[in-house]
Amino acid sequence: MLKPVFFFFPQKGDGVLSSHEFDQGRKKDGLLKSPSSSHLAYGILDIPPWYLCIFLGIQHFLTALGGLVAVPLILAKDLCLQHDPLTQSYLISTIFFVSGICTLLQVFLGIRLPILQGGTFAFLAPSLAMLSLPTWKCPTWTLNASQVNTSSPEFTEEWQKRIRELQGAVMVASCVQMLVGFSGLIGFLMRFIGPLTIAPTISLVALPLFDSAGEDAGIHWGIAATTIFLIVLFSQYLKNIAVPMPVYGREKKCHTSKFYLFQVFPVLLGLCISWLLCFVLTITDALPSAPTAYGYLARTDTKGNVLSQAPWFRFPYPGQWGLPTVSLAGVFGIIAGVISSMVESIGDYYACARLVGAPPPPKHAINRGIGIEGLGCLLAGAWGTGNGTTSYSENVGVLGITRVGSRMVIVTAGCVLLLMGIFGKIGAAFATIPTPVIGGMFLVMFGVITAVGISNLQYVDLNSSRNLFIFGFSIFCGLAIPNWVNKNPERLHTGILQLDQVIQVLLTTSMFVGGLLGFLLDNTIPGSLEERGLLAWNQVQEESEDTTKALEVYSLPWGIGTRFCTSSCAQYLPFWPGEGKVEVSQLSLCPWDSSGERPWSPTDTRM
């Protein structure tokens, strides 16, 4: 078994953490338990030394880097920005900055677990569907680099009016998420959402993007294939190879320690090496210099002026692209993304709690976490990232690798994101990544996201023809229906323009179509709770027995709700902590036994 030993923090005892022992400590009576604090270098309430917080915070930033950079780069083409890397760099800096703000809000006022916040792929499908409407399709002249003057007022208005439309849709949809979170409705909704709804929804977040990723990779398949090979090599074949690294510790001072470099930074290493390869091929003129030749966009000098044009420091601010606009089509589409994002975030909350040795999150913490994520989406819309925010699953995985679950590390990561957002040259550097390198990264990332969605089927009975039909039919229709609507938009005609746009955006959003079909079929076709996977699904959510520890971890900071603001009226708020509350941390408000009946328990949640 793998035994991670990381140079980022001093190990306890003999300096070796056994993954086998860790897993054994988490299993008891066949159920997955939270790891004890003895298996962690730093628990959720511990505060590591400041220099370790900085190193670990930078590591979390680098882990989230691929997802953070990918979102604005995917949106760039439909925002008419494919030939304006300087504006792309502004979007990247803005998403860094807003992600830092949202991370700090989530750690201090939200779920209070060490979870990083960042851009979400769940919003991409409805955003691209909205931008594909005839009203928002890019003019032909913006697709030709020779005709684009990025400093002209006409071009600036073309891309800004599109991102303002996205801003307005995200801001209105975020209010729905805040309502669902702060009102406690999320618990009620989760009673009807099981693995057969979540699996097609998450799988269809990435599947429809194959065309965009393939086009970028097709700029130069050799470079794209090299990027894919390197990422797969580092993440799958070399992940167990430890690299000796110099380290300074309090006890041994200067010495070497083994660090699983390839396991922690496979995407970053793959991007950097492919980027360097493109640079070498550019200076040796191995890549064509004619703009119309195949492989020209693999050159590193096609965007070389971005670094010189970008300011050293740029402070993003709300409304920097103008006053947001709102349309019904955009709002309904983004709401579909909000639902998918909420479901995924709840899974991240439970996974994070297990990895850092914390009790499963009580309902008031989950409600608060979802509400704060909605607030984060509102801020992302106001700042103009063109996207929302959500919890990052990749960084939850880092907690399990490093065995450092301290909240202070994520606070540091949030501050690092803020600084990277202000430092304009950072965003500009990532905007110069050659297009085929980006395409190769997208192919790998989208494949992983699809696999994550399918992995939810582990809870259901895959020998059941009922379940196979629901999943297969939902996936197929989630691809077929949007494809037909995109090719035949004129067939959707009700006589009301706004209604036509709403229907078109929803029916061209694959995850909405597939998720809705999965939801309807799973809740209407007869099947036992065990067959549907709801028994195994709910067993993953564990009852929080240690209420004292739960109150310590999930209560608001500075004694809010426990020493201050302890009004009896506040205790009835679904998101408010309190010593007198008895909680059951399950996705379903109603626990079920194997017979399908609902037994009464004195610890059932009182709404």
Automatic annotation (TrEMBL):
Domain of life from the UniProt record: Eukaryota
Topology versus the membrane: Multi-pass membrane protein
Pfam family, one: Xan_ur_permease
Keywords: Membrane, Transmembrane, Transmembrane helix, Transport
A single GO cellular-component term on record: plasma membrane
GO molecular function: transmembrane transporter activity
Localization in the cell: Membrane
Transmembrane annotation, as ranges: 49-76, 88-109, 115-133, 169-198, 218-238, 259-283, 321-339, 409-431, 437-456, 468-485, 505-525
Record bears the keyword Nucleotide-binding: no
Location, primary (coarse class): membrane
Similarity comment text for this entry: Belongs to the nucleobase:cation symporter-2 (NCS2) (TC 2.A.40) family.
Designated name of the protein: Solute carrier family 23 member 2
Protein's organism: Moschus moschiferus
Lineage: Eukaryota, Metazoa, Chordata, Craniata, Vertebrata
